[in-house]
Amino acid sequence: MMRTYTDIALPCAVLGHNYHKLKDNSDQTSQIICKNCGIVVNTDLEGNFDHVHNPKTHIQGTLRKLYHLKLQFLKRSSHAS
Hints:
By secondary structure, the protein is an alpha+beta fold. The protein is 40% helix and 21% strand.
């Protein structure tokens, strides 16, 4: 079963996060926050995301993509028949 999203997280699910800088840390890293859903992410010294989130969210995202690919494939195969 697909996970449902609230109206707040829907833009993030469809378009991706809309990050802005929350604060600069003393070690020259930054914290950024999504304006839509409020997720906070740290950046490293080079500005790359420092991913320390739950690994299950990556799996859930991958499963969601596979589900949508399956739907697209089924629609195309039903139109070809």
